[in-house]
Amino acid sequence: MRVVIIGSGPAGITVAERLRRYRKDVDIILLAAEPGPPYAPPAMADYFLTGRTQMLFWKDRDICERLGIDLQSGVAVSMVRPATRVVETESGVAIPYDRLVIASGSNLYAPIEGCDLEEVYNFKSLTAASALVARVRQGHVHQAVIVGAGFIGVEVALLLRELGLSVTLLEMADRIMPKMLDTETADIVRASLDARGIHVRLETKVSAFAGNGQVARVELEKESVPGNVFVAATGLKPNVAFLRDSGIDVGWGIQVDNRLRTNVSDIYGGGEFR
Ligand SMILES: Cc1cc2nc3c(=O)[nH]c(=O)nc-3n(C[C@H](O)[C@H](O)[C@H](O)COP(=O)(O)OP(=O)(O)OC[C@H]3O[C@@H](n4cnc5c(N)ncnc54)[C@H](O)[C@@H]3O)c2cc1C
């Protein structure tokens, strides 16, 4: 029996680990679009500040070797073909499965003009976060503009401030972390950001990242905010584009029942995909 798991985020590695605990005889293949061992996104900011890897590689770097899991990192799945029970990778390799687990998580959702420009960074993956921090550490940047004050935007604001930048945090709602905090608690977080010198602007909607060749400002309704490093932290979108034409029910994310089964037999979905 071969189980293929797409995605080595917290969901994917947890499925692999648990499966191995119950079944020693199953072949487990873990396909991960990013390079490197499984990591915990919540520990990224601490890692960049302190260099500590213990929390980042929360299962230890060698977890897959220890558990006999075939981790194929840097391998992105581009297609799932249930009729022949194979997944196809971006490099054209077909990998057969008996059971398939989709744990492809989510990525940045930024419905803002210019968000796909190269100089607009995000903090959703270790690859993306490393690019942002490398840019900051190169020097020549001193003013960061972060769009979105959800928990990721707030975390990036704190990190970049610690790294010595001036930070402006723009949020279209009337409070910080509007999906998570009530007004009273949001005010406490706001005060803490103010105390650290982070410039927060609420009820401020960004319509575009703009500039001549290189992003140099964000556009608001009546003005623009300049900067030299820009971060979009406006929301998350499930990674499901590669499931098109697979026959698996996909809405905004993957549709599963209360046992995490998709509509296609022997294909399951888990993690941050809805
Ligand atoms: C900065 C930050 C701080 C956070 N802090 C907290 C916190 O304090 N508490 C909390 O509960 N949560 C926190 N979260 C959220 C938490 O990290 C997510 O809920 C969790 O990572 C979701 O796990 P997942 O495995 O479902 O998805 P992901 O972590 O998104 O992992 C999915 C993996 O699948 C890979 N993948 C995607 N498509 C493919 C493909 N086609 N082929 C192969 N691989 C693919 C991706 O590269 C990714 O590595 C934080 C997130 C971030 C970014």
UniProtKB/TrEMBL annotation:
Residues 1-272 form the FAD/NAD(P)-binding domain. Pfam families: Pyr_redox_2. It comes from Candidatus Kentrum sp. SD. Its cofactor is FAD. This is Pyridine nucleotide-disulphide oxidoreductase. PANTHER family: NITRITE REDUCTASE [NAD(P)H], PYRIDINE NUCLEOTIDE-DISULFIDE OXIDOREDUCTASE DOMAIN-CONTAINING. InterPro entries: FAD-bd_OxRdtase (IPR050260), FAD/NAD-bd_sf (IPR036188), FAD/NAD-binding_dom (IPR023753). Keywords: FAD, Flavoprotein. Gene3D superfamilies: FAD/NAD(P)-binding domain. Belongs to the FAD-dependent oxidoreductase family. One of its GO terms (molecular function) is oxidoreductase activity. SUPFAM superfamilies: FAD/NAD(P)-binding domain.
